[in-house]
Amino acid sequence: MVAGTTREHTEAKEAASTWVKEESSILHQPRAVWAVAFACVIAFMGIGLVDPILPAISASLDATQTETSLLFTSYLVVTGLTMLFTSWVSSRIGAKRTLLLGLGLIVVFAALAGLSTNVEQVIGFRAGWGLGNALFISTALATIVGAASGGASSAIVLYEAALGLGIATGPLLGGLLGGISWRGPFFGTAALMAIGFIAVSVLLRPGDERPTPMPISAPFKALREPGLLVLACAALFYNIGFFVLLAYTPFPLGLDEMGLGLTFFGWGLGLAVTSVFLAPALTSRWPRTHILWTTLLLLAVDLVAAGLFISSTPGLITCIVVGGLLLGVLNTVLTESVMEATDLPRAVASSSYSAVRFLGGAAAPPAASAIAQALSPGAPMYAAAVSVTIAALIVLGCRRILNRSH
Description:
Helix content: over 70%
Number of domains: 1
Keywords: Membrane, Transmembrane, Transmembrane helix
InterPro entries: MFS, MFS_dom, MFS_trans_sf, Tet-R_TetA/multi-R_MdtG-like, YfmO-like
CATH architecture: Up-down Bundle
Distance between the termini: 37 Å
Protein name: MFS transporter
Largest sheet: none
Subcellular location: Cell membrane
Organism: Nocardiopsis alba
CATH superfamily: MFS general substrate transporter like domains
CATH class: Mainly Alpha
């Protein structure tokens, strides 16, 4: 009995020691990693930043709901297409210059969006914002994974934490500044990105080795890898559900800028918490493919519930926050799976996967508005549930191909 207790005590100490080491490796990073992570937070703010001000932009610029939703579409289409070429760019000018180019473009186009006089201009400048976003995001992931201490898993958790924090604070900032003017969030992002630009330029040193130039066809050829292709296709359908939840629900909620900001702050906070704490705990116990298809089906159920509660503000808010909790797990596990799915350079794998994923999300906002007008307010949520279920079936049906990502 004593021997058993001693053994259990020793095992508990070893487990605690391992946990402390993992936590330490995540938190104790080079200054350059923190600089890039900070800039990631600001970059990801741009995704949810416009959520609280969508109704205000629609009213102020006399735009329809579908036209306003194109703020997401132009941003995501350009982001997705540009990501196919970011590894080619970064392999020629280096990671630091690519990051700074992306940040600089975001500063310029965010400021121009704030100066716009009609919705068409905002849509166009959001497209330019997406160009900078693509150059920054796909390069940032590869930079953090390459420079962080504690291995790829710790780096990915740090990256997803930045993503979650950015997505959480974006709507809150949008709500606070949007209460003053719909232009405020755009100017706020430009100012914060300028700070990120300075931090990266000062703290991130260029690599000692000259980057090996990548052929422009590398991201396209990468999609021939079965594991990467399966994950990209699953992410495409998953992102449709993601952006229906993010870009469509502000309209049926009917809240003011601050109300929407707080709602999506809760959504993003849930995403951040589960991406950093719950996802690593789950992947230490079960195969990634099992976690993916199970969580995708749970998200489909949540989207159906959101459709049923579309006329109930408390019910819809609950579904949005629960959705954020599930999205955090999916984002982290999908990213880890992509990094382990092939032997390709991380920048190439990241750009190929992200391109397909963002293009899936680009179609969701205007499609959701069109479906709502043609059928019913809850119909877009049911369509999103079907899309997410397809993603789950792709992972479940191709789990043998994804054995390497377990």
